[in-house]
Amino acid sequence: MEYPLVKACIDLDAIQHNVQHLKQMIPGQSKFMAVVKANAYGHGAIRVAQKALKSGADWLGIARLNEAVELREAGIQAPILMFGYIHPSQVRVAVDLDLVITVYEFEMAQQLSREARRSNKYVKAHLKVDTGMGRVGMIIDKTDKKPSCQAAEKQREIKQSARKKAVKEIKKILRLPGIDLNGIYTHFAAADSKDKTYTQMQIDLFTSLLEDLRKEAVDLEVCHAANSAGIIRFARSHFDMVRAGISLYGLYPSFEVDQSKVALVPAMSLTSIVTAVRNVPKGFYVSYGRTHKTQKPTRLASIPVGYADGFSRLFSSNGTMLVKGYKAPIVGRVCMDQTMIDVGDIPDVKTGDEVVLIGSQGNKTISADELAKKINTINYEIVSALTSRVERIYSDSGSVSG
């Protein structure tokens, strides 16, 4: 039996806490989607989805078809929205899995309609509209986001014209056979930024489109916009459903989000062990490329975690790990399977000692945010980068399981 050298310990009670506290921020009638794409941001999709649903989540969000297959095969029956692109050849599988597919434009809807009729199936769908993310979705505003005063009136006319065209396209989709379009959504580009102006503009644009649709007797059942930052910072964006991604896992979308608004609990800790300790002299080179040279006699510990586990090579000589309650600096390059730390100033480090990469030990903590800041990235990437080599261990109301 293999001994797990690197473990991501997932606290499912933290997932429950986060769902319940986030739900307190939204209207009682609004649905709550737990976004579990990318293996639940590295936390393990099946166990997180099960716990989130038991804790009050109504929907699940995923990006790719194989993620939905995994959830359905685990017996999960909740509504699932697939954000990502689906090839027409996959429609039959998606329908059999009872998924809600995202439609980006009329032409895509036409393709899905043809495939649905060919398969004698009915496709559930939500339409995605682009209010300013600039990624995918039906574009409903082609104006300059910062027009001059003289051009403001002209810009309003262009916006109205663009929305009118969008309404026409949406009504055409609604008439397509084989497609049940009962939802519409958008995504925020900067809801976690200090300046709220752009997000307010996106909310205004989405709201105006919904009003235009209702004037045409089009009242889609599920309208949604809020991501984690939207839930916490923009009550106007809650609509019929919210989508909790990073906040579900106890992490805040950015340092600019007011953390006092909701108390989140990080669900993941990442641990390993010391597998070797060696005394080395001054002038000793460490790891590939000889990028680190000891400045004095010291002790080096080898930790069996590397970039193949999702621990970025950017942490080379740039970061720390916790051993015996002390922060030990990473020295030399992170290897595929191992990383070295300097434990010369830490007493009695020995083979088998616990090493914490994310989490607490003694009175010290290393957070995903701290790691992200070290390598100029975001906490999302730190946790979702963990590969399948890292064993997930789950704690749930006192019980522990793999």
From TrEMBL:
Q: Where does substrate bind?
A: 135, 336
Pfam families, sorted = Ala_racemase_C (PF00842), Ala_racemase_N (PF01168)
| Cofactor (UniProt) | pyridoxal 5'-phosphate
What range(s) does the Alanine racemase C-terminal domain occupy?
A: 267-395
Pathway the protein contributes to: Amino-acid biosynthesis; D-alanine biosynthesis; D-alanine from L-alanine: step 1/1
The Gene Ontology terms for molecular function here are:
alanine racemase activity; pyridoxal phosphate binding
Q: Which reaction does it catalyse?
A: L-alanine = D-alanine
Name of this chain's protein:
Alanine racemase
> What organism does the record attribute this protein to?
Desulfobacula toluolica (strain DSM 7467 / Tol2)
